[in-house]
Design a protein that fits this description.
6 helices; mainly alpha; 140 residues; 82% helix
C-alpha cells in the first residue's frame, strides 16, 4: 500500500512541476511578444500568437516528459532534474525565438500580433518544436 501511495504522491509532484513549467513558459513567451498573449488569443482570437504559444507548450511538454521518463528512482532528485531541464528548455526556446527574430527581416513579435495571418509563424512554430525535440533528445 505504501508503494501505491508513494507512486501517487510522486505522480502528483511531477505533474504539478510540469504545470508550473508550462506557466513559466507562457510568461516567457508573453514577455517576448508585444501585447498580452491571453488577450490576443482568448479575447481577440488571433491565430498567430495561438500557434506560437501552442508550439511552445508542446516543446516544453516534450522536454518535461522526457526528463520525467529518464529521472532517477529518487523522487526528489528526479524533480530537481526535471525542473533544471525544463528551465533550460524554456531558456533555449526563448533564445531560439530571439535568434530567429534577429536573422529574419521584420520583427517576429509584431508580425505575430498584427491583424493578419503571417507565414513566418509556421517557421517559428517549426523552430520551437525542433528546439523542444533537440533538448529532449539531449537529456541523459
Amino acid at each position: 500500500m505504501t508503494d501505491i501511495l508513494s507512486g501517487l504522491l510522486s505522480t502528483v509532484a511531477f505533474a504539478a512541476l510540469g504545470l508550473v513549467l508550462l506557466v513559466v513558459g507562457f510568461y516567457v513567451i508573453d514577455l517576448l511578444t508585444p501585447g498580452k498573449l491571453g488577450q490576443l488569443i482568448f479575447v481577440e482570437h488571433r491565430r498567430d500568437p495561438a500557434l506560437l504559444l501552442g508550439s511552445s507548450v508542446v516543446a516544453i511538454a516534450t522536454i518535461v516528459a522526457t526528463s520525467i521518463y529518464t529521472a532517477e528512482a529518487d523522487t526528489l532528485q528526479g524533480l530537481a532534474e526535471t525542473a533544471a531541464y525544463g528551465l533550460i528548455g524554456i531558456v533555449l526556446l526563448a533564445v531560439a525565438f530571439v535568434v530567429l527574430d534577429l536573422i529574419t527581416p521584420g520583427r517576429l513579435g509584431e508580425l505575430m500580433t498584427d491583424d493578419k495571418d503571417d507565414p513566418a509563424i509556421w517557421v517559428t512554430v517549426a523552430v520551437q518544436l525542433a528546439v523542444g525535440v533537440i533538448v529532449a533528445a539531449s537529456i541523459t
